[in-house]
Structure prediction request, 516 residues.
Amino acid sequence: MEFFTSNILTIVTFTPAAGALLLLFYDREHARSIRISALIFTFLAFVFSLYLVARFDSSNPDFQFGLKVPWIRSLGIDYSMGVDGISLFLILLTTLLTPLSVLASWSIQDRLKEYFIFLLSLETGMIGVFASLDFFLFYVFWEVMLVPMYFLIGVWGGERRIYAAMKFILYTMIGSVLMLVAIIALYFIHGNATGIFTFSYPQIQSALASGRLVLRPAIELWLFIAFFLAFAIKVPLFPFHTWLPDAHVEAPTAGSVLLAGVLLKMGTYGLVRFSLPLFPHISHLFAPLISLLAIVGIIYGALVAMVQPDMKKLVAYSSVSHLGFIVLGIFSFTIQGLEGAIYQMLNHGVSTGALFLLVGIIYDRRHTRLIEEFGGLANRMPVYAAFFLIVTLSSIGLPGLNGFVGEFLVLLGTFGVNPSRAAFAAVGVVLSAIYMLWMYQRVMWGRLENDRNAGLPDLAGREHAMLVPILVMIFWMGMYSSYFLRPMDASVMKLMNQTQAGRVEYATNPNFVASK
Prediction:
């Protein structure tokens, strides 16, 4: 048991990869065995992540379940992993959504073996991003995650899948190159200043926090910009969002679920994990501009979502709006705002992931996502309509459901810093309710006028298995938010202390970059 506990992060991370490796030896004709094996390995990863949550010490702000093994000694590269209150539930979210995505992919027939190999490889990459404590290892997992998603969109996507996949990979690769340059620069700057050449995130961050490593303002500025652009593209923050609607619309259902539920959170996670603690001075300096972009994204995403004729594209633009709330909370530099942002990462993953599952269910039956093609579905599919209603209400932040807590904390934290920002962001909440309820009313209520909808069956057993766990999370996170917030408290407080020096220096001299 001690071996299991000390290596739990490695086990969680590479269980899906082991499943992908096993699938290589399966005969293509054994479709049922391939599906069941993929489901078993992703479910095992979820079970192991539950053990991770159960053994997590909420009072400890530091990284837990740490494992550090020299990898490339000559370059100071380690296999280093750990988890804290910021990354804990993001790993759980990943391992929850992936088996649900496997269930959503049950109808896939074309190149089934390759499809699930890519899906399982993607899960390993996503978990690795949240668990890595070495910059080089983080970058490896970041890149590993891109390749499977590129193929999931490009091979199993819709009519414009090649265009969407190329746009996704090009945008993300631009950010990746910038981040790689910044990582290498940090490596040499730290090595020249301390005599220790390492890619260790805790070691470099500690050197910066203690003053053993001092970045010249101009260097800190360029490093911050490189990291920020990499993460802003991934979020995506306005105006870097244009790749997202195409990727969502063309991706298969599982691809959309994981893209919205997990991949976008890598951008916001990167802002919290790297941008704030490594570059606190510049983060405070750019906070007003970044907050403005977040607010523009909130309102722009909501307004564009209101005029979308395609359900999937509507949900995609709603993500642009919701992710703006997360970025706004991060750069409020308040306890409430930061915890609200992290909580909203989980909320968005659960609610928007469920929306894409629901849209995928109706698409499998009708092979269209156009809102005008539906109407009166509640008469034929009452259980489906009930699930859709609950998820819709959670997405717009109804009190008692998961979406309310995160949005409330973000607005509360932002109001304490700048009431006008909170007021503009609140407009996005109202607009969100308008377009989500409008879509639900058009699709579910009214008369059943389209004859092609008359014979649609209600949810099957497999589809219940996909949606019930999400329903549980929606109510659990809405009514017992302290279960999720308490493990974050210590880590968020530590992060706030690390960024406090930047707040003090910026408050003393807002033009310190120019003055130095």
About this structure: Residues 165 and 482 are 39 Å apart (CA to CA). Confidence is low (pLDDT under 50) at residues 504-516. The two ends are 54 Å apart (CA to CA).
